[in-house]
Write a structure and sequence with these properties.
With 311 residues, the chain is α/β, with parallel strands linked by helices. The chain folds into 2 domains: 160 residues, 3-Layer(aba) Sandwich (Rossmann fold); 123 residues, Riboflavin kinase-like (Elongation Factor Tu (Ef-tu), domain 3). The chain has 10 helices and 14 strands. The strands form 3 sheets. It has a 6-stranded parallel β-sheet, with helices on both faces. Helix 7 packs antiparallel against helix 8. The longest helix is centred in the C-terminal third of the chain and has 18 residues. The radius of gyration is 22 Å and the shape is elongated. The two termini are 30 Å apart. 32% of the residues are buried.
Length: 311
């Protein structure tokens, strides 16, 4: 898969099938669009092209608190490569670029570089200044400029439309297993291991504190999770606590993981991938550390039984 991270770097491809979008999460709905792009491109004997943006356009266009993201750009590219696309363009989205109207975007970037025979987009995708580029706009533009347009309808499960917005809400509420089903991959993120205060070690459950690689990463609801860690290509299982450790009257939010079969000393300063398999309980305040230890032992036993279905 060829990846172009600047507009100047793009090598022109005569004839192609193109899709456009932010694709945060690369969820099952997005995957249907990508499969169609790949299928149509293969049938025509042309390149399959996906155009996306980094940073997320809402991080540039909206003020105040940033939209929490489902994935880092590197995770997005990893999934897109697994979809066997030929070309991915990551357009640096900045204030100047945000003023480009939809027609100019199509002429100056899409048509100029890829001469699309077909553009395939999701039913709710908009692009260009003030979101002018609706599916209807695209269809009309295609008629005047010699390319077909295919609008992919939403993918639903149990009458619920699969979308990045819905998946974010599931994760915010701690429903990570359902979120992973809608994503089509186990929700998690790359993180950097840092030193903590050693609270877990004193309880007999040494933990590694971590912070997400993506600064705007969406994090699940506070609580205890059964997790899978990926370190240097190896899978490790454990349990993770997200919260403020109320038993010790602390207030700072921490993310910490206890691996069942791994010494932590060689993890500090390294990157790991933490995948949230299932949420097992709320964060609780215990009367004393001994009560907490009893619960942690129960949590560990539960997670070790649970992890068997993920091996």
């Amino acid at each position: 898969m060829d990846i172009y991270r600047t507009l100047d770097a793009i090598q022109k491809h005569p004839r192609s099938v193109v899709t456009i979008g932010t694709f945060d999460g690369c969820h099952r709905g997005h995957q249907e669009i990508i499969k169609k792009v790949k299928s149509v491109a293969d049938s025509k004997g042309v390149k399959s092209v996906l155009i996306t943006f980094d940073p997320h356009p809402r991080h540039v266009l909206e003020f105040g608190e940033k939209l929490p993201l489902l994935m880092h750009i590197d995770k997005k590219l990893e999934i897109l490569e697994s979809c066997r696309l030929d070309v991915v363009v990551v357009i640096p989205f900045n204030p100047d670029f945000s003023y480009m109207v939809a027609g100019d975007f199509l002429k100056q970037i899409v048509i100029k570089n890829f001469e699309p025979s077909c553009i395939i987009v999701g039913y709710d995708h908009h692009f260009g200044f003030e979101r002018e580029g609706s599916p209807e706009f695209l269809q009309n533009f295609g008629k005047d400029n010699g390319f077909a347009v295919d609008v992919v309808e939403p993918i639903s499960d149990e009458n619920i439309t699969i979308s990045s917005t819905h998946i974010r809400e599931l994760i915010r509420q701690g429903y990570v297993r359902r979120a992973s089903f809608e994503l089509g991959w186990v929700f998690g993120f790359e993180a950097h291991v840092i030193h903590g205060v050693g609270r877990g070690k004193g309880l007999g459950f040494p933990t590694a504190n971590f912070i997400p690689e993506e600064k705007n990463q969406l994090v699940p609801a506070n609580g205890v999770y059964c997790i899978r860690g990926r370190i240097n290509g190896n899978n490790l299982y454990g349990m993770c606590n997200l919260g403020v450790r109320p038993t010790f009257e602390e207030t700072d939010f921490v993310m910490e993981v206890h691996f069942f079969d791994k010494e932590l000393n060689d993890l500090y300063g390294k990157n790991i991938i933490v995948e949230f398999l299932e949420r097992i309980r709320d964060e609780q305040k215990f009367s004393d550390p001994q009560e907490l230890i009893k619960q942690l032992k129960k949590d560990k036993q539960f997670c070790m039984r649970l992890m068997q279905k993920y091996k």
